[in-house]
Design a protein that fits this description.
Blueprint: H1 7-40, E1 47-51, H2 61-67, E2 70-75, H3 80-86, E3 92-96, H4 103-113, E4 138-142, H5 145-156, H6 164-180, E5 187-198, E6 204-209, E7 221-228, E8 238-247
Parallel strand pairs: 1-2, 1-4, 2-3, 4-5
Antiparallel strand pairs: 5-6, 5-8, 7-8
Helix pairs in contact: 5-6
Length: 248
């Protein structure tokens, strides 16, 4: 199911883009790791979880494994190189999980309705039971928020045309579900919230939001992630992201 929905290709795409864009990604990755290490200070040290651990490019896994008695890494799949990297640490556990909670429901929705002339609005799609993160002393949502809904929408668009309003509402629901499951006073979130399209010379052409559910905080840290300078994400255009981080 996850392969059909593009999750595995997306994960491979991330590491390939990093290899092409390393010099431009490094500042963003360092900012993410540094903010995470700052946010974990003062938390109880029994256990922590990282949501969207991926290739561990932006996860200070060694520092977290030293600080916490147990560290859990959540993602749709854990690459072999990650398994080898965490093996010597001893107290890091990998958990395979659909972090969004919506993937199976979306898959079932398309399977049931794609051959019909009419379909119910995608607002009927409800998440599977929420991840129980209440037992962790610290939880990191690591550059995953905007990705949760994009892959789901892309999959739906393979079978249906979606209206603008229902698309925004669905994305907001997915993001709200994610934000609400993060334990308060024990979590931090790092997420891109705006996509900036630029000419090859770096002149801004447009911006669009990538966060559809508000994260109302005054103590946020912000920076620009030079996501794609090789112009492969949008043809003949560079793509940057505005990133925010905060404790919840």
């Amino acid at each position: 199911m996850f392969r059909k929905m593009g999750y595995f290709d997306d994960q491979l795409g991330i590491i390939r883009r990093y290899q092409r864009e390393r010099e431009h990604w490094d500042a963003h990755l360092i900012n993410t790791r540094q903010f995470t290490m700052k946010a974990m200070q003062g938390k109880n040290r029994k256990s922590a979880a990282v949501l969207g651990s991926g290739w561990l490019l932006d996860v200070p896994v060694e520092e977290m494994s030293q600080y916490f008695g147990k560290l859990y890494l959540y993602d749709i799949r854990h690459p072999t190189v990650v398994k080898k990297q965490i093996h010597p640490l001893g107290n890091v556990e990998l958990r395979v999980c659909d972090i969004s909670g919506f993937a199976r429901s979306v898959y079932q929705y398309t399977k049931q309705y794609r051959n019909r002339k009419e379909r119910p609005p995608i607002s009927v799609i409800q998440p599977q039971p929420m991840l129980d993160l209440s037992g962790f002393d610290f939880v990191v949502s690591c550059n995953i928020l905007s990705q949760l809904d994009i892959l789901l929408i892309d999959y739906l668009l393979q079978f249906f045309k979606l209206g603008y309003d229902e698309t925004v509402i669905f994305r907001s629901n997915v993001q709200q579900h994610h934000i609400e499951m993060l334990p308060r006073n024990r979590s931090c979130i790092i997420a891109d919230y705006e996509e900036i399209i630029c000419t090859p010379e770096g002149r801004e052409i447009s911006r669009k939001t990538s966060v559809h559910h508000p994260i109302i905080r005054t103590d946020t840290h912000r920076w620009t992630w030079k996501f794609d300078t090789k112009m492969t994400y949008h043809k003949d255009r560079m793509t940057f992201f505005e990133v925010m981080s905060c404790e919840l």
